[in-house]
Amino acid sequence: MRVTLVYPSYGEEQHSLYFPFGLAYVASSLLKAGHDVTVVDMEGDRLSAEEAVLRTVQSSPGIVAFGGMVTRFRYVRELSALIRKELPGVFMTAGNSGVTTVPEIYLKSCGLDCVVLGEGEVTSVELVDAVEKGTDWQQVPGIAWLDKEGALLKSSHREPIPDLDSLPWPAWDLFPIENYVSSIDHRQKKVRHLETLASRGCPFNCVYCYRIYGRNVRRRSPEAIVAELAELVSRYDIQYTGFPDDLFTSDREFVIKTCALMKEKLPGIKWSCLGRVNTVDREMLETMKDAGCDWISYGIESGSDFMLEKMRRGVTAQQCLDALKLTESVGIHAEGSFIIGMFGETRDTVKQTVDFCRKADITAPMLFVTPYPGTAIYNMAMDKGLIQDVEEFLLKMNAADELLVNLTDFTRSELIELRNWAQGTIGRSYLLKKPFARIPALLWKHFKLHGFRGLFHDARAFLTSVLARN
Ligand code: B12
Ligand code: SF4
Prior knowledge:
CATH superfamily of one domain: Cobalamin-binding domain
Strand content: 5-15%
CATH class of one domain: Alpha Beta
Number of strands: 14
CATH architecture of one domain: 3-Layer(aba) Sandwich
Bound molecules: cobalamin, iron/sulfur cluster
Strand order of the largest sheet: 10-11-12-13-14
Shape: globular
Structural class: alpha/beta
CATH topology of one domain: Rossmann fold
Helix content: 40-55%
């Protein structure tokens, strides 16, 4: 059957491109099952909604299926309405973590026939088979739909795919892959890159995080991961890769084995991953460094032990500091990310985070906490009546840098002011600690990436921040 997979826009003017693995895995499974798959990549091809609809209609689909994370809900809503007008009888579905956590909203607002819950590879194949053959698709496990009265119905639970090595590689070539490979990577560097997924799931339980694959971690074999990477090198000439798993470092033995194989088969390839401070040690980091790892991003989130406990992080600020220093000491760049505005946040806890960054000598983005559907804090926010209208909440989501729900005792403007102060102080302290090295390096980096526009933007931001110092 002809299936058109639509990847909605990211919603920002300028950004790096991240390859949509979920949709690409679904695409390769459908291809393997003999279906005819077209991808309309609004993001990768920078399509307007009208262009995306036109391409979708021109592909003459039997099924249209949307991907994209929860923040892209509004695009799915817009596109689905436009496509429905052009193709009134087409079967429409969607999958991703948003659909999985708030299926009723997607079904109601986007006029979808059903949605795919959780892991999509097997479910999408069975669903397309059933629609093609005209059998009862509601018998396919792992889907949800609305009955005539608008009540949510779900089929039986879909078991996780036991062996990830059995999945075909993502269907990279259905996407405008060169745009992804040659885009600025997540470190803001220009290098040919494409990432690979090594595992699904995370054993931890942080309150602001939703894990579509749950706490039981499934890992691919190091051999399969390295074979895929070798293919990416030979097909697309990549020089850089990374593992955007929930948590790449959750199992020491797995990391060490994968590194040994990477070192042997892919010398010269550099890479990055997401880490957790209590899952790394010196020997492991040295092994990673030796296998080409040059960058680890740790979700630090706060410099306050009180807040870390509230977030169920299970680590202390001191552990975070030690891990950052250890990582840098073996020659891997350690990056931290922070959030502000969790339940219980105070001026003191924010100051502790700022002090933490000074001590760690890092600069880092500080994002407002957002209670995404499926997280513990989403349930708490719902219980407290802080999210009155879920659809409105989803529609407001964009690049994740705005304050959408205030979980604190501060007023909205106080919290925004506090964030701006903290972010400015962290950035300024970092630059002024080694001004002659860091300021020119920053300006040069942004000039290379964005030309004079980037340079002026940076210079103005820095001067404003120095003048506003308090
Ligand atoms: C890489 C990544 C990113 C990348 C972008 C990825 C991309 N291409 O869009 C970047 C770094 C940009 C990013 C940003 C953000 N991210 Co993010 N990200 C991830 C991460 C770590 C991996 C995604 C991935 O590739 N997974 C692997 C693939 C195979 O899984 P999948 O995408 O879920 O796809 C499967 C199913 O969902 C389903 N499926 C997916 N699409 C489709 C389509 C169809 C038709 C079907 C049938 C099935 C289907 O089948 C797929 C295969 O099994 C996930 C965590 C995770 N492990 O999933 C978070 C995650 C998706 N991100 C999340 C969040 C919150 C964000 C941010 C808002 C964070 C922030 N505060 O900045 C921003 C959003 C920015 C924006 N404007 O949209 C949350 C979403 C929470 C939620 N309730 O939906 C997650 C789950 C992290 C978490 N644990 O909380 N992210
Ligand atoms: S934030 Fe990271 S460590 Fe915590 S549960 Fe999510 S993936 Fe796991």
